Amino acid sequence: MKKKFFVAIMFLATLGAYAAPNEMTVLTNKPGAKVQSTMYGIFFEDINFAADGGLYAEMVKNRSFEFPQNFMGWRTFGNVELKNDGPFDKNPHYVRLSYAGHAHKHTGIENEGFFGISTKKGEKYRFSVWARCPEGGKSTILVQVVDNATMGERQEQAVCHVDVEGKEWKKYTAEFEAKKTLNKQSLRIFLRGFNKQSIVTTDLEHVSLFPVDTWKGRENGMRKDLAQALADLKPGIFRFPGGCIVEGTDLETRYQWKNSVGPVENRPLNENRWHYTFDHRFYPDYYQSYGLGFFEFFQLCEDFGCEALPVISCGLSCQFQNDIRDEKKVHVALDDLDSYIQDALDLIEFANGAPTTKWGKVRADMGHPEPFNLKYLGVGNEQWDYKDNPAFTARLKKFLDVLKKAHPEIKYIGTTGPDSEGEKFDMLQPKMKELKADLYDEHFYRNEAWFMAKENRHRYDNYDRKGPKIFAGEYACHGKGKKWNHFNASLMEAAFMTGIERNADIVYMATYAPLFAHVEGWQWRPDLIWYDNLRSFKSCSYYVQQLYSLYKGTNVLPLTMNGKVVAGDEDQNGLFASSVVNKETGEIYIKIINVGSTAQTAKVTLKGLKKAAGAKCITLNSTDPIAENTLDNPNKIVPVETAAQLNGNILETEVPASSFCVYVIK
């Protein structure tokens, strides 16, 4: 790897030394392969507090007291008792608040939220709780958002009251408006009397706090700025729920889609495999509430106008964390896969079945009687075979034998494991063709040297055109050193993606990963979108993905330089390029990336173009290769639009050093 990195550095250092003209030709009258609507999309995994504490707008941690340490995230005071015979069978725990023993003592609970509870001045928030008075009568709970760091002022920053009455469990809601914009607060609940009468014992379950202004205004909704950032990507495909989350550290902690649907208060807690994976980034309070479940996922796909790509467990736990010799303990035997295959069939029914079917009715009861029109399904995440054990492919075959017969209208996706090349990849790739998978999923998290190596710049140019189609399901360039989101890593990704685009006949999908990261709770980087509880910013890689998605076109146009595809070869001066036409709008999109340290002049002949109505250029560049966007400076590096000049059918332009340019020709 050190040798590869040295070669890549020497390659970059020599760029700009060439004097040869950069003359390119685009055959505008010979549109080629169709660019799939699914080509550029998003991959979601609940890592880096992407769901609870991120996209999912719930602000209360451990809202149903179901963490293994039931009061993790809570402080209790006064007379508080934990009970486990609550109204929801999958979440049986709740708290009982009783008289503290003196008129001037208080009983209550206080929640720390996800890295604090944050509010914006003037914004409204909705508190909800399931509650009862088990002995009858009436009580009041005082609900406060408090700033415990306040000096010389009231801790209370927002307040509302909820009156509870009767022995039966009921859902109560109340709204309040924030007085200040504050980041590190808590949610505090006091037990009070009713109309100055004596305090009555009160039970509380599923304590929840959401901003009223969620994405699409939904009560069990998504954080608006983060959902909008996804919508602005104009994704064609949305993969969910992962990732290693699909597998789980063991079978018990795998993602089980059936637990993520139905009433939100009765979705059971799941252990998040990322809370302990890295001891240097350790979060023992990281669990999955399943509040963002499969219904919400399909709903978001509908919002974004993209296809859904759910991924299901194939019966293998994470193979990185489990020795195959312990197969009976951590993996499902081949003969015991029926329930897992049935889960896949039921998921298709949940998505597409009529409201009269069992799982179609569950969807309808959740408010969506129309089918979601699911077209794709992934089986397994990053599994692999061994020389003496077809651990993954034997299981995949059993799935495909049943699924293809029951639902031939669905396209099924396999995997070539965790590596972009090597033993596992070489073993699995031909097997995907043998098993007749419709697509297979490739993953590559690699450094700049890998992205600049010739075999990877031309990765898809020589692939088998008769095999399954390709899904580049997880990829990112890891910047040298801390693997962070600096500009140069994003530039390498942009250059690599020209190879995805010009090979649209076999590459049908591509999704950068991971998607989200909380600045105080990340385990893995780089990531596309970063945030704290109040703010967010888009990385340079986000803008690379967005530009490809916004200008993906409908068909590939042949583009060459010196008679060859433009992939940064030795006589191409560090330039990468691809071109597409959008038949729907009558526009041509030319993408040119300059990874070198000096500007390059490009002369692009648009052969066959009779008339152009105008042109513009969108440029993403930075003179500092390790510059990045931040919470305090979110727009440091963003695309800039300028006019471009055409002389007849010739585009002459200067491509700045270290830049990604998209030319739009009408």
Can you offer a commentary on this structure?
The chain is an alpha/beta fold. The protein contains 13 helices and 35 strands. Helices cover 19% and strands 30% of the residues. The two termini are 44 Å apart. It is globular and about 90 Å long. The strands form seven sheets. An eight-stranded parallel barrel has the order 2-14-17-18-19-20-21-22, surrounded by five helices. Strands 3, 6, 7, 9, 10 and 12 form a six-stranded antiparallel sheet that branches. Strands 26-28-29-35-31-32 form a six-stranded antiparallel sheet, covered by helices on one side.
Helical segment count: 13
Q: Which structural class should the secondary elements be placed in?
A: alpha/beta
Beta-strand percentage range: 25-35%
> What's the multimeric state?
single chain
Radius of gyration: 27 Å
Mean pLDDT: 93
Could you give the order of strands across the largest sheet? Answer: 2-14-17-18-19-20-21-22
Query: First CA to last CA: what distance?
Result: 44 Å
* Total DSSP E strands: 35
Q: Please summarize the sheet with the most strands.
A: 8 strands, parallel, barrel
Q: Portion of residues in helices? A: 10-25%
Shape: globular
The stretches of 5 or more residues where confidence is low (pLDDT under 50) are 1-19
